[in-house]
Specification:
By secondary structure, the protein is an alpha/beta fold. The protein has helices at 8-19, 36-43, 67-80, 92-105, 129-139, 156-164, 185-194, 201-211, 215-218, 227-236, 245-251, 257-267, 276-283, 289-300, 324-332, 343-347, 351-367, 369-375, 428-442, 476-479, and strands at 24-29, 48-53, 112-117, 147-153, 176-179, 274-275, 304-307, 318-321, 383-390, 399-407, 411-418, 450-457, 472-474. The protein is 41% helix and 16% strand. A 5-stranded parallel beta sheet has the order 2-3-4-1-5, sandwiched between helices. It has a 5-stranded mixed beta sheet with strand order 9-10-11-12-13, sandwiched between helices. Helix 4 (92-105) packs parallel to helix 5, helix 6 (156-164) crosses helix 14 (289-300) and helix 8 crosses helix 17. The two termini are 20 Å apart.
Length: 482
């Protein structure tokens, strides 16, 4: 338990659920590699009675792992964990019946924990898995006061549709749900320190802008290497461990990976995203219910975000790619025929990477909006956030505002994000840009609204005649608040 970083809330809740005197059904879901299995292993160490993990939808040769293979694997788990020798079940109803019999035979009155990992993988086409799971829980397990069923899954949409929001036999049956999120910046800092990796907050933020706070990826870091050296080792060196991770993210979790990757690749072409019609045209997918479910699956797994751009109708939502790993991979790795093994080190100060830092920091700030609002002392004020782009015309200069925080207390925060290696300085030229953006924004706001400019940067703001342009300054340390 001492080795686990963060996850205090989740560990405490699992401990409470374990100590309850009634049947419990816990559903844990979250992005692939976020640490769901590790959480269960640490929080319930030495307490798991039976565990099983579904087979990936495809094997190493790309062939589907069908119902027969899944059942055989489940039977082998039962055998390995003490069930009397029997026969391989013919269907999931029989498989869960075998589990019931096994649990009854070894029941000594203490808490029994059944842990099924990668649950969605067991639900192969026409398998009847959901029906069997309903029968197991509703007909037997929910009546066992000492039973705790814990299930995990990386396909968030499957977990939500079939368990958390199920409208059939499993409606309202889960007693506790955990959506496991990536590490915060503070947790990233603790993780690296626990492994003896010395990194500044400036570099920890950059690592998060690439890896998104995913513990599995962070665990590859070598303590003797700098951040650029570690990034080269992960993505650009020969046999780099994350070189094929983008494809694995989708093929190992979703039933329609090719269509999902097509959507993600298209969304990566424009930072502010596209509306539904644009995505359909750009991907050549059909405008039907299946397309809607594909978008919902990506939203549920936090790969994309659905939002309404400032000033536009709620009937025209946009979808944008927000997963840091995918954004980085598609920008620098995907489709590159030949890659320098030390690409990041050799280009670390290039214009291309400096531009990426600026964009990636903006994305990081959107992910850290709660901490930004806390630093601004408006944590309790309801708000909506979005970027705002106004195209220029022949007669009028356009504008791009990194983030607008449209608050319910008649204030709009016009936020500028600057990822600098030193304090940011407002000069006369930048002052004119801020004035232009403010005046343009005022034209689109009700007269009751006021504009407060906010600088979100790494280290701070240089004091000069223009520094008062910003009402508030939020620095990188504020984003590391726990």
């Amino acid at each position: 338990m001492d080795e686990i970083i963060g996850r205090k809330k989740e560990i405490n809740e699992l401990s409470k659920v374990y100590s309850s005197r009634k049947a419990e059904f816990v559903a844990i879901y979250g992005r692939r590699r976020v640490g769901k299995t590790f959480l269960v292993d640490e929080a319930l160490s030495g307490k798991i009675t039976f565990r099983h993990a579904g087979l990936s939808p495809v094997d190493e040769k790309g062939k589907a792992n069908n119902l027969k293979k899944q059942l055989q694997n489940f039977y082998q788990s039962l055998q390995l964990q003490g069930m009397r020798k029997s026969h391989c079940p013919k269907n999931w109803l029989e498989a869960f019946f075998m589990l019931e019999m096994h649990l009854q035979q070894i029941d000594n009155g203490k808490r029994q924990v059944v842990f099924i990992d990668e649950l969605p993988w067991l639900d192969t086409p026409h398998s009847g898995f959901i029906t069997a799971l309903e029968s197991f829980w509703n007909g037997w397990a929910c009546h066992r006061k000492n039973l705790m069923l814990v299930v995990c899954g990386s396909a968030n949409s499957w977990m939500l549709d079939n368990l958390v929001y199920n409208h059939g036999g499993l409606y309202g049956r889960t007693t506790y749900e955990i959506k496991l999120s990536p590490f915060t910046l503070a947790e990233c800092e603790l993780f690296y320190k626990s492994r003896g990796i010395q990194m500044s907050r400036y570099d920890i933020a950059q690592a998060n802008m690439i890896l998104g706070g995913i513990p599995y990826y962070m665990n590859y870091f070598a303590r003797e290497k700098s951040l650029p050296q570690n990034i080269d080792a992960l993505f650009f060196a020969a046999n780099a461990p994350l070189h094929n991770e983008f494809t694995n993210l989708f093929t190992s979790v979703f039933s329609r990976p090719e269509e999902l990757m097509r959507i993600v690749r298209f969304l990566a072409t424009r930072r502010k995203g596209f509306n539904r019609e644009d995505i359909i045209k750009g991907t050549h997918l059909y405008n039907n219910g299946t397309f809607t479910r594909l978008l919902e699956a990506l939203i549920a797994s936090d790969f994309i975000d659905k939002y309404v751009p400032f000033g536009e109708s709620k009937r025209n939502p946009h979808y944008k790619l927000i997963d840091p790993f995918c954004l980085f991979y598609l920008r620098f790795v995907d489709g590159q025929e030949s890659i320098d093994n030390e690409f990041w080190m050799n280009n670390v100060q290039s214009q291309k990477i400096n531009a990426w830092r600026g964009y990636a920091f903006e994305d990081l700030c959107f992910r850290q909006i709660d901490r930004i609002k806390h630093a601004m002392q408006i944590a309790g004020v309801g708000s909506l956030q979005s970027a705002w782009v106004v195209p220029g015309t022949d007669n009028k200069e356009g504008a791009q505002i990194d983030m607008l925080i449209h608050r319910k207390d008649n204030i709009v925060n016009m936020c500028e994000m600057k990822f600098y290696s030193e304090d940011f300085t407002v000069n006369a030229e930048y002052h004119k840009k801020l004035v232009h953006r403010t005046n343009l924004l005022l034209e689109h706001l009700p007269r009751k609204m006021a504009i407060h400019s906010v600088l979100i940067t790494t280290f701070g703001l240089t004091y000069n005649e223009y520094s008062r342009d910003f009402v508030t300054t939020v620095i990188l340390n504020d984003l590391f608040a726990s």
